[in-house]
Design goal:
Structural class: alpha+beta
Number of helices: 4
Largest sheet: 2 strands, antiparallel
Shape: flat
Strand order of the largest sheet: 1-2
């Protein structure tokens, strides 16, 4: 949809902002309120699996943990259609890609 309007693909920041905004709006709808505590509880309880983040979740320290990816740029011969620039080399699970909750220094984490 972004491409249809802008005639270019969204960058990572734009895609991330859209993903997080949609997660918030869905939580407001599910909680049937915009009360901060209730919406945050719903956001933390709801997995995040969209075009931007796979296997995502919001931990008690507020960190959104999700799978990360290593991509390689394709050669011209490998690219088959517009915007077909990257090939997936590896997926790093979120629990390996981010600092463990046990090492968080966030005051929200009860130790």
């Amino acid at each position: 949809r972004y491409f249809e309007k802008m005639k270019k693909m969204p960058n990572m920041s734009q895609a991330g902002a859209y993903s997080s905004t949609m997660h918030y709006l869905k939580a407001v709808q599910a909680a049937k309120t915009d009360d901060t505590a209730q919406v945050m509880a719903k956001m933390k309880a709801t997995p995040i699996n969209d075009f931007f983040a796979k296997n995502g979740r919001i931990r008690e320290d507020g960190r959104m943990v999700h799978d990360m990816y290593l991509f390689e740029v394709k050669s011209q011969a490998e690219s088959k259609y517009p915007w077909d620039y990257y090939k997936l080399v590896a997926t790093v699970p979120g629990d390996k890609a981010f600092l463990p909750l046990s090492q968080s220094k966030c005051p929200l984490v009860k130790k």
